[in-house]
Amino acid sequence: MASAPDKTSALPLSRDLILQTAIQLADDHGIEALSMRKLAQQLGVKAMSLYNHVANKDDLIDGMVDIVAGEIEVPAVGGDWKQAMRQRAISAHQVLLRHPWATMEMVSRANVGPAMLRYVNATLGCLVEAGFSFEMADHVWNALDSHIYGFTLQKLNFPFEETEYADAAKQYVSMLPVKTYPYLNKLTHYVIDGQYHGIHDFEFGLDLIFNSLDSFRKASDSLA
Q1: What is the C-alpha to C-alpha distance for residues 94 and 148, in angstroms, rounded to an integer?
Q2: Considering only CA atoms, which of 220, 95, 211 is closest in space to residue 149?
Q3: What is the pLDDT of residues 144-185, one digit of tens each?
Q4: Which of 22, 25, 79, 203 has its CA 20 to 30 A from that of 193?
């Protein structure tokens, strides 16, 4: 019996269908496994037909990144800026965890799609209307995004699951003689003994950033 065709093959080919299918392939197998040939196979079409909708692989990935950016909650301009920016950060972290390939693509490309531009414009607007100068808003936005991207990449690539921390600590504690590495040894024993779980908190980093920002605010330098 012949296998049933993939459901995407029954749909008319479009840029959105191509991008959504590419995102699913990258989510499942990693961005390195994504090729125009494999994407065409998944869609049930010939590879050349993809080029009627995407210029090349760079255009494909740019479009994928923009769709991912569109999943991130956009901060409201006006109101409680700290809450809006906190929710933006949490949303971005969650979205990037859903798409493990996207963080590196987001930080290494120009990202000028409409969803990304809307996201960045709203971010700057939220900060400027809260009283930050344009220059300081740019610094704040980049400091927050550095935390988001760095924390996300570490979580995605850390060699142990959170449930394995205590066992990993037992495995490596012999490499940390107390006379040579007294502080690392003590911390490792805290994890082994269950006094500390060793799990890092994304929002702790946000608290450190937000608690330092009020001193950088000034009278609003808005577009008005």
Answers
A1: 10
A2: 95
A3: 999 999 999 999 999 999 999 999 999 999 999 999 999 999
A4: 203
- What CATH number labels 62-157+207-224? 1.10.357.10
Q: 């060699």: which residue's tokens?
A: 159
Q: What residue type is assigned to position 49 of the chain?
A: S
Phi (first) and psi of residue 213, to 5 degrees: -85, -25
Contact 127, 81 (CB under 8 A): yes
Q: Which residue has the tokens 């994504």?
A: 34
For 34, the token pair is 């994504």
Q: What are the tens digits of pLDDT across the range 103-136?
A: 999 999 998 999 999 999 999 999 999 999 999 9
pLDDT score of 25? 98
Which helix (H) or strand (E) segment is 97 a member of? helix 81-98
Structure tokens at 197: 């779980």
Six token digits for residue 67:
């769709």
Burial of 173 (0-12, 13-18, 19+ CB in 10 A): middle
Q: Architecture of domain 7-54 in CATH?
A: Orthogonal Bundle (1.10)
Distance of CA 193 to the CA centre of its chain: 33
